[in-house]
Amino acid sequence: MTTTRTRGDRTAAWGALAAHYEASGKGFDLRRAFAGDPGRFASLSQAAPHVFADLSKNLIDAHTESLLMALARESGLEAHRDAMFAGAHINATEDRAVLHTLLRAPPGASVGAKLAGAFSDVQATLSAMLAYAEQVRADHTITDVVNIGIGGSDLGPQMAVLALDADVAPGKRFHFVSNVDGHELAAVLRGLAPEHTLFLVASKTFTTAETMANARSAKRWFEQSGSVDIARHFAALTTNVEAARAFGIETTFGFWDWVGGRYSLWSAIGLPIALAIGAEGFRRLLAGAHAMDDHFRTAPLERNLPVRLGLLDVWYRNFHGFTSRGIAPYHSALRRLPAYLQQLEMESNGKQVDMSGEPVSAATSPVLWGEPGTNGQHAYFQMLHQGTDVIPLEFIAVRDAAHDLEGHHAKLLANALAQAQALMVGQADAGGHRNFPGNRPSSFFVLERLTPESLGAFLALYEHRVFTSGSVWGINSFDQWGVELGKVLARDIEPRLASGDTGGLDASTAGLLLRLRPRA
Ligand code: F6P
Asked: Who lines ligand 1 at CB under 6 A?
């Protein structure tokens, strides 16, 4: 299947949006917009599977959205989306399909003849992995699970295990070791007994330097304790099952090159999640994501939440020129969500050339960052309210708490609502110092409860939102060549730290290397 994509900045709609920005976009005032349109909340909020989103505190109106919809259509977003679901090789620079959605299709789903073989492999691997998860959950001698992986082989499972803490059966502790910094692994190993520990070596490629270094050290630690049963205490989650076997791991769960690292928590990489919340819980996570996949695939663009969000991102990045977006989950269990979303969006859309390798002429990924509320309020919110930059903020609130401590949840939710309100309404002060300009945009997401389904749906919502903006920008959201150069240079520098050889290095790198060399 071939898809016709037109770079957004080469469409007629782009020019219309630029004119609209000049005419009314840059002077848009949220307070006036609400005063002038009693239906604003209803038209700019919507329910999608497991997620309610209020976009009404954003610098848009119906006309902005209709121009953005035209932009999506003229860019070929719908055909591009359908090509992804159909298994076309839309990741052209790696000549790969992009099929994380297939991982979430329910058993028995009709996926078409072309994907039938892949889907039956997915289902078989999922069943085997979930059976293994239940077996380990029932094994009370395993008290500690250590996931060794980095990037997508760490952030998704770690974020989800923390997020679903309320569903995690007691009796097992979960540890995540990602950094090559030995302090991290050493601190985890200090608290472990080899006979009670299961190591999961999670790496799509099974070549990533950090993960291999940590896996080797974990294996050495295990063997030095006199333990021999690697088959019982190590499992590998990888597309490179042969390399895992060569490393000495017999228990392996595979996945496929069409699962990008940052889209892999739905695959065998999700094993820590299945260990934490059980096979049924993991299937619920997949079901939530699948519900959002269906919404993205079938809802008309005007009522398609990931599409509306992705287009809002384009509007802010390219017309308003906003360079970053804040993520404020008002739920402490979502504390790793900003880090997870950073990889998802910045590794996907941090690109400077389009699909044909030509430089883009419009800005791409913003910087994503964030911290849970209310903590952020006592740190960086000052700048959001009174700083000189406008930074759209995303509130994520959960209606029902998973604890019964009196009063806390109402205070938490009141703070989320109040901050979004304060950003928008502002406050006048003749003296200046207490002046809040207001008109600062935010989106507000509501989950009824933080469950496997709602988390799955919420993450899929973001994936498809990133797809949407990347699609309009005309870039490949599914490769990550930008991570390679530093890896290559580190391989060259590592032996120089021991030898002190600075030949051919720039003066700064050489000077720093000499300072960092171990002293005898
Ligand atoms: O270096 C970037 C990256 O390739 C990410 O895209 C990926 O999630 C991470 O490294 C880990 O890769 P792997 O799962 O192959 O170890």
From this structure: 150-153, 203-205, 208, 211, 261-262, 347, 480, 483
